[in-house]
Specification:
Blueprint (H helix, E strand, L loop, with lengths): L11 H12 L22 H5 L1 E2 L10 E6 L8 H6 L4 E8 L3 E2 L3 H10 L3 E7 L7 H10 L14 E3 L14 H19 L4 E4 L1 H8 L11 E4 L1 E2 L14 E5 L8 E4 L3 H9 L1
Parallel strand pairs: 1-9, 2-3, 3-5, 5-6, 6-7, 7-8, 8-10
Antiparallel strand pairs: 2-11, 3-4, 10-11
Helix pairs in contact: 5-6
Length: 269
């Protein structure tokens, strides 16, 4: 006849281990790795932070289609984009003070060669070097400007930090100071006021919704929806709107808030 023995009580050590394991937070099963420095691009954080809610209605004569590109898109079929109605383009030139887009020449000159109006943008990393230093680096490596009717002013791409905290570890006033430093140096170097690319939610969080740039610097707003929505403080209208990351030929498509002659006017200054 089998002998039934009572289950032994857990030892003190077992009880402590059980309690510890049940209170420790579990790491995400598929935590996304931090991207390599230099790999950021315009709108990189929009879907993750703001999502997507619809697509805009078909453009009319009051708006002009554009695209923005970076190194991850490689050599771009500019003739194909031109044939689809794209009239202007921006290419990432630089990031911080150490990265240059290896595809910049093909992308920047390629748009120009097929007849588009083109420009360059700089992905800001306010946690690495000063605004003035990054404006200098941008102006020295593709971000310059010439009054040829085909070259748009440079763009400061200021958005979520893909490498760390969203606001790059800066207070709202510190971020405004950094942006001001960049804009002032870019104007001194090129004679043009830079365009500011940003998303309203990031701008509100990281600058305190500062409204002091709207009277001078054109706005390029990012929002993947049927309308551009609420704009950052200081701007009553946008100049450009990045409305999707899943457009034809290259993903990032944009609308200029005006007909082609207004794009030319911005290029001419």
């Amino acid at each position: 006849m089998p002998v039934h023995r009572p289950t032994p009580a857990p030892t003190v050590l077992t009880a402590l281990l059980t309690a510890l394991l049940t209170t420790l937070p579990l790491a995400p099963a598929h935590a996304a790795p931090t991207p390599a420095r230099g790999s950021a691009y315009m709108g990189m954080g929009v879907l993750a932070h703001d999502g997507q809610s619809g697509t805009p209605k078909s453009a009319d004569a009051a708006q002009t289609e554009g695209v923005d590109v970076a190194s991850y898109q490689g050599d771009v079929s500019w003739s194909g984009l031109l044939g689809s109605g794209v009239k202007w383009a921006y290419t990432k030139a630089t990031e911080g003070t150490s990265y240059k887009n290896p595809y910049f020449t093909q992308q920047y000159n390629g748009a120009y060669d097929v007849g588009m109006i083109r420009g360059a943008y700089h992905f800001a990393t306010p946690d690495t070097t000063s605004g003035a230093a990054q404006a200098d680096y941008f102006a020295d490596h593709g971000g310059g400007w010439s009054r040829d009717g085909r070259t748009l002013p440079g763009v400061l791409d200021i958005e979520w930090n893909p490498y760390g905290s969203a606001c790059y570890g800066k207070s709202a006033s510190g971020m405004v100071s950094w942006i001001t430093d960049f804009l002032n140096r870019y104007k001194a170097r090129t004679g043009r006021d830079a365009v500011i690319y940003t998303a309203t939610s990031w701008w509100s969080e990281c600058t305190g919704n500062y409204g002091g740039f709207g009277s001078v610097n054109p706005l390029w707003v990012a929002r993947y929806a049927s309308e551009a929505g609420t704009l950052p403080a200081g701007w009553s209208t946008y100049t450009m709107w990045q409305y999707t990351s899943t457009g034809p030929t290259v993903g990032d498509h944009d609308r200029f808030n005006g007909a082609l002659d207004r794009v030319v006017a911005l290029a001419n200054g």
